[in-house]
Specification:
By secondary structure, the protein is mainly alpha-helical. The protein has one domain. The protein is built from three helices and two strands, in the order ααββα. Strands 1-2 form a two-stranded antiparallel sheet. The longest helix is centred in the middle third of the chain and has 9 residues. The chain is globular.
């Protein structure tokens, strides 16, 4: 069984090109999934985060 690589908020920020502050806001609003490991540590599955953020994508209407 292979374990998925979980990222901390700084690694996720680098990978997704989003500021840490914005990701913390998404966590607070429960827009992205996370694992709380202890009091301060948050870990993220990048695949689940990508799926969650895709829900908020707005596609251009009427473009050809």
């Amino acid at each position: 069984m292979r374990m998925k690589k979980l990222l901390d908020i700084f690694e996720l920020s680098k990978e997704k090109g989003r500021p840490v502050r914005q990701l913390r806001g998404f966590v607070q609003q429960r827009k992205i999934s996370f694992l709380r490991m202890g009091h301060r540590t948050l870990l993220f599955d990048p695949e689940k985060v990508e799926k969650a953020l895709a829900k908020y994508e707005i596609r251009e209407v009427g473009a050809k």
